[in-house]
Amino acid sequence: MFLLWLVLPGAIALIQLQEDIKKQLSAEGNYTEEELEAYMQSHKKLMTDSLWKLNVADIEATLSRVCQMVVLLVHRY
Q1: What residues have CB less than 8 Å from 56, skipping those under 6 apart?
Q2: I want to staple 10 with a disulfide (CB 3.0 to 4.6 A). Which of 4, 24, 53, 62 is the partner?
Q3: Is the CB of residue 61 less than 8 Å from the CB of residue 3?
């Protein structure tokens, strides 16, 4: 449950960014590849930070499971 709080901000930011992209590009109708690239470049830091938060939470969850397995194995032997 603790890791959920670490993942939520990153996931929410990515969802909001996706919705913003849909709204902005749908409102314009047609858009060029250059316009899409410019939009992505202008939001690169937000995407990178959000993905980083998700990555950190995944690594922490993996390490937690590995540590729990090690503790269980140590207690068995």
Answers
A1: 6
A2: 53
A3: yes
